[in-house]
Amino acid sequence: MSVNHQSPDDAREATRDAMVIALDRLREDGSGGLSLDVELSSSFVSEALAKTDARADQAGRLDAHIWLQADGTVLVRGRLHATFAVPCARCLADAMVDAGADLCVTFVPRGEFDAQLARRAGDSDDGVELDADDLDQFPYEGTSVDLSPLIREQIHLAYPMRALCGYGEACRGLCPACGANLNEGPVQDHCPKCHAALGSASAESEEPPPAWKAALEKLRGNN
Ligand SMILES: [Zn+2]
Ligand SMILES: [Zn+2]
Fold first, then answer.
1. N or C: which end of the chain has fewer CB atoms below 10 A?
2. 81 alpha carbon – ligand 1 mean position (Å)
């Protein structure tokens, strides 16, 4: 990796800086637009998931094409690639989450954005619904567009309510008695004591049951 010599903080800063696109740069590139290929440092991905139990060890990537239109609108089309790990809902082992997403957003100069909002507020009084395009519009101010808040939000949105490890629905979770990961083999192999306590087929526990079972069956029969 090209960023190995950087501290996590530096790598995060570099990722943020790479996502600030100066409008001058877009003007120079003309109508063909600008191609952007940014490595998203793992520290940047981690920051997007701060305050969650997710862990990001791998760098992601942002592949995008950006155009500046004559009216000052900036179009961004591309794809976000990122993965992170969360604890499996059953066994707490890593469950990998794919935060990959297609991006199709428009940045509108702040003044125009606010004017559109005001118009829309008027429209919705008349019962006009927002269409999906409106939701992918963001305002920008000054002489550059910063993609990093958008990318952070996209990664954060990928945080799942519940995720399962590589075993999927076959994940057997943890032993309720000792916490051993039951995916690692049959219970009797890695926690024989728990197996004896939890299981009913243990040889030593053969004696007492018949007595109380007989008593119980008697009670049931009498009812
Ligand atoms: Zn699991
Ligand atoms: Zn156990």
1. C
2. 24
